[in-house]
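Researcher: I'm preparing a figure for a lab meeting and need a structural model of a single chain. I don't have an experimental structure, so a prediction will have to do for now. The sequence is pasted below. Please return the structure as tokens so I can convert it later.
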Amino acid sequence: MGSDASAVHRTAVLVAVVMSAFLTPFVGSSVNVALPAIGQEFHMSAVALSWVATAFLLSAAALLVPVGRLADIYGRRRLFLWGVLVHTVASLASVVAPFGGVLIGLRALQGLGSALIFATGIAILTSVFPGPERGRALGYHVASVYTGLAVGPLVGGLLTQVWGWRAIFLAPIPVGLGAAALIGWRLRDDWTEAPGEPFDVFGALLYAGSLTAFMYGLSRLPGTDGVGIVLLGLSGLAAFGLWESQNASPLLDVRLLGANRAFLFSNLAALIHYTATFAVVFLMSLYLQGVKGLPPAYAGALLVTQPVLQALFSPWAGRLSDRVAPGVIASVGMSLSAAGLFLLAWLGPTTPMAWVLSGLGLLGSGFGLFSAPNTNAIMQAVERRHYGVASGTLGTMRLVGQALSMGVVTLLLALYMGPARLSPEHVPHFMEALRSAFLVFTGLCILGIGVSLARGGKGRWAG
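Model: Understood. Here is the structure written out token by token.
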């Protein structure tokens, strides 16, 4: 099915992809609100709790590019369906997790499902919707992601407070089953832009192993073993780039990065922005509950501010990016994000809630203006046969950025708090870690503004 698909099929595609895009952010943002309760039940430190998020990110980031290539060769619909099912099954199993290690393992399995969903979903939308309608469709996709982020803290806080954190993993199951049913019932065709081409198994293993080593090493810093693992991962990624540049059927065509300025800088902007913003909800959940003493439902209601604004701005920003240079809109969004992060860097135990809401509001508005236009810029920059890899590359930038964000926070928590749990006597140390993190993230966003502006005009690589 190509861009000439009927309006009915396009609608079915949009609904299925939008429903599926809701799952991962909903679970992730819900779990963030429930982290204090999970830590209390399983007696986990603040550093250990960060692995509930990091395990998911490790799995998803390492698999996104290989899955994107598999989807281009064997069909995006098939892998998309498997992703929805895997994520749903992992959610169901998480309900009965007996201890923290099992929950972390199931979050890694959810990462696999997410990789299958996000490596194929954006590529499917780009294949089905023609140029003039693509920004609008991508805007709805991003809005669905942000709706999951918006509903997650509120629903997750309520579920945690009333029925306990395990109820969070039951909530997305109906959505997953509904999306899977729609895919199986209405979508009979598939999308294969590179049928018959060989799959680079060695490259996939080298990429996944190296990226996993790099991100795992970050979590081990500042220890000497962490430094060694990070260097091992970086060496493997360099070897992967060399291997791919000489491969006739590469997993990731590195020429997309080397010869396509718009593609390179748009992906780099995404990496920086996600690195600077992802850990905000994790830190704010601990701050609101562990420092301000708010119940989970109230904390979740406050955290809704950011993703609600993201969801409201995204469709409008996506439509605008069909008419105005996407890089300009994305750069304005990055500027608002920097302002919001700078405000949050000055939080304290007695900071008024109006200050908290102002920071979260600026972040939400900035992210809403950044994400859909930046996605549109990336997909405009490549040929149709590279949509799957481009989608997977963007998803990898997002997940690697999120993992780096958690890596920064984990490192700072380890430096300021060590193995301690968040308790009244450790609040000053936690606040020092929080301030340091937000100042680092502010600096990254300022750097990202320059990267976003440096992408230049629209450019399509036709190698």
